[in-house]
Amino acid sequence: MSRATLQKRPEEVQAMFDDVAPRYDIVNDILSLGQDRRWRKVVVDAVGAQPGESVLDLAAGTGTSSEPYADAGIHVVACDFSAGMLEVGRRRRPDIEFVEGDATNLPFEDATFDAVTISFGLRNVSDPHRALREMARVTKPGGRLVVCEFSHPSNSVFRTVYTEYLMKALPPIARKVSSNPESYVYLAESIRAWPAQNELAGWINTANWQDCRYRNLTGGIVAVHHAVKPHDGAGSTTEELTDAASPNALPESGPQRARAASEYLRRHASRRPH
Ligand SMILES: C[S@@+](CC[C@H](N)C(=O)[O-])C[C@H]1O[C@@H](n2cnc3c(N)ncnc32)[C@H](O)[C@@H]1O
Questions:
Q1: Ligand 1 contacts CB of residue 17 (under 6 A)
Q2: What the protein does (predicted)?
């Protein structure tokens, strides 16, 4: 049984997902208490794919995150570097195009996709900055990025309870239901070490994306970040960040909050919410 460390060496991450592949989806459902279905729906809405568009679902694993697009008649490419996860995916959904590829060196031409999305994958990539730049490279100018990842609850009491769940309750449950319980120790550690919502938005804005906004789900256990690929190819680091759903992402008080709130209203008056 293999388990990755926080160094996230690609061969260790690959081997770990090869191991968990056969029971990956059922264990996910159990450990997230069924919340993952709701999170996935929010991601699909944020991507907002229209018929005729082409979507890349990166780190797609067994294709669970790709299915809703295929079901809606959207052309989706499910890309992952774990042969084990891809094998389960191809068996489950022979109608979906699965492609073996590394997020840090994508096997696609520039400007191929209208939207790129990655669910619970970026945290596992050895060089997430490079992966974000690669995602921008393969996206058409004006195209969208949606990143769904575990994050940090904004309420301190809830954060403490959740951290206890992650570090103490989750590993024994994983021992009962998973084929590779050690990998769930990695899951807990990698979630704790992952940057908070605003920091991740900063990473995205400096990786050739702009206008990054995020939305907290289940109190911030998960965050969904949305950004746009600029038409001139330049990223933006100047956008003030706002959260489409939760006022928790705004500064607590003062002129900064007022400015952020008016910026939020301006954006939402002119844009489709995600
Ligand atoms: C937790 S699974 C998520 C699968 C799917 N997106 C979902 O929502 O269920 C993470 C996936 O990321 C993949 N992954 C990690 N690093 C990768 C990389 N550098 N390139 C491609 N896939 C990667 C793993 O193989 C694994 O299938």
A1: yes
A2: Methyltransferase required for the conversion of demethylmenaquinol (DMKH2) to menaquinol (MKH2).
